[in-house]
Design brief:
Blueprint: E1 2-3, E2 15-17, E3 20-25, E4 28-33, H1 45-58, H2 64-76, E5 79-80, E6 86-87, H3 91-102, E7 126-130, E8 133-143, E9 147-152, E10 168-173, E11 178-183, H4 185-192, H5 196-202, E12 206-215, E13 220-221, E14 225-230
Helix pairs in contact: 1-3, 2-3
C-alpha cells in the first residue's frame, strides 16, 4: 500500500488501473495492489468444477448445426428445476444442464441435443435407519422406470430445518430394478466422515435425503422427492 499525493492537475482518483486500486480511507488517498480471491475447491467440488470447465470449452467446438439443434431443443422445452420451478433456458444452458447430469454417471458428454421426454419424479419414499444402515425404502416395491440420483443434507438441528438446504450428491442408480430399499450407508458415512454406528448412537439431528429420477443417457431428470428422518 502506498499513500498518494495529488498535484494541481489531479485532485482525486478512484477505481482500478493495471492491477492497482486507488481509494480513500482514514489515512487519506492510497494506492494498493488489487487482490484476487484464492478459491481451493474441496474434493467434492473439484469433479464438478472439472466437468463444468470441460463442457464450457467443449461448446465452441460444436458445429453450427449442433448448436442450432440445442437452440431448437431449448425453444421447444421448458426446464423443470429440482425444486419444481419452470425456467426457460437457452441452447447453451440446456447443453450444460444435460451433460452435468449425464456425467455423474457417464464419462463422456453428448454433443447432439437429446430427444425430449418428460421425467416423472420418483415415488414417495421413507427413510429407514438403525446402527447398521440408513436407506430409502418403498412400500410396495418401486419399479423405477429409469435412473436415480441420491442427494443428502448435512445433519440438521430441529431449529434449522428449512426446505432448501445445501445438498450433496452421494449415489447413482443406473437402470433401477424393482426396489424395496436402496442402501446409502457407506456414502452418507463418507460424506459426514463418521462411522455410522457411532454417529447413530451419539447424534441428535435430522437428515434430509432427496432423489431425482431420469435418464443418464440423455441427462434429463425430474424434480426432487424428499424425506426426512430424525436420528
Amino acid at each position: 500500500m502506498a499513500r498518494v499525493t495529488y498535484g494541481s492537475g489531479v485532485t482525486n482518483y478512484k477505481g482500478s488501473i493495471g492491477g492497482i486500486t486507488y481509494q480513500n480511507n482514514t489515512s487519506g488517498a492510497i494506492a494498493r495492489l488489487r487482490t484476487k480471491a484464492v478459491v481451493n475447491p474441496t474434493p467434492r467440488q473439484e469433479p464438478y468444477q472439472t466437468r463444468m470447465s470441460y463442457l464450457i470449452s467443449l461448446w465452441p467446438t460444436l458445429t453450427q448445426v449442433q448448436k442450432d439443434a440445442w437452440t431448437a431443443f431449448a425453444a421447444a422445452n421448458d426446464h423443470t428445476t429440482p425444486w419444481g420451478d419452470i425456467k426457460t433456458l437457452n441452447g447453451h444452458q440446456w447443453f450444460l444442464s444435460c451433460n452435468l447430469r449425464r456425467m455423474l454417471y457417464h464419462s463422456t458428454a453428448i454433443v447432439a441435443a437429446p430427444v425430449w421426454a418428460i421425467q416423472a419424479p420418483p415415488d414417495a419414499f421413507t427413510i429407514e435407519t438403525d446402527r447398521t444402515y440408513i436407506r430409502v425404502a418403498w412400500s410396495p416395491n418401486y419399479n423405477a422406470p429409469e435412473d436415480l440420483i441420491a442427494y443428502c443434507s448435512l445433519p440438521l438441528r430441529q431449529s434449522s430445518l428449512k426446505l432448501r438446504r445445501s445438498l450433496f450428491h452421494i449415489k447413482n442408480y443406473y437402470t433401477a430394478p424393482d426396489l424395496a430399499n436402496w442402501d446409502l450407508t457407506t456414502e452418507i458415512a463418507a460424506l459426514l466422515n463418521v462411522t455410522w454406528a457411532d454417529f447413530y448412537d451419539d447424534s441428535d439431528c435430522n437428515i434430509i435425503i432427496r432423489l431425482l429420477q431420469g435418464d443418464f443417457d440423455k441427462g434429463l431428470f425430474s424434480s426432487y422427492v424428499s424425506a426426512i428422518i430424525k436420528i
